[in-house]
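Notes from the 1:1 (GR / supervisor)

We went over the backlog. Supervisor wanted to see one worked example end to end before approving the batch request, so GR pasted a single chain during the call. The sequence is below; no edits were made to it. Supervisor asked that the structure be written out right there so they could see what the output format looks like.
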Amino acid sequence: MSAETDKPHTPDTDEGVHNPLFASAPEAKIDQLEADLKKAQDELLRQQAEFENFRKRKAREMEEERKYTILPFARDLLPVVDNLDRALEAAAQGGDATSLRDGVKMVSAQLMNVLSQHQCIRIPGVGSEFDPNFHQAIAQEATAEYPAGSVSREAQVGYKLYDRVIRPAQVFVSTGPAS
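Structure output shown during the call:
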């Protein structure tokens, strides 16, 4: 073997001859990498813009959903309002008090029905066991009619929507019979 064959063979330095195809390979690679980087940056910008548009669209949809959530409830409540207006109109025309009272009772029952259709129900009051999760005690009173720890009177009716208290019932709590 000669000393020349022991040298590493490189295409662009072989025998002092410069090969332009191999000399430009690193520059072409750099150009290719720069093009790939630019493409990746453009794709990233597009993805970011798409995500921002998605986020804004979802925010608008959620706002609209929140805004119109009460629509079915309002629709169901309008006939109650109509009947209440009719009762007031009848009272203004000088109807008797009994028919007015009966009309208002019917409207009240209709209103309670609409509320229950929408899972808004009355919290049990008088006679039920006092529960601080549903009742707000405003006073205690001695009464033989209800056992100690029971609700003896309601100052204000409470309501819950599904399992969440909207307004606790304001109640008087029995201490049992007076001694």
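Supervisor's comment: Residues 24 and 90 are 99 Å apart (CA to CA).
Batch request approved.
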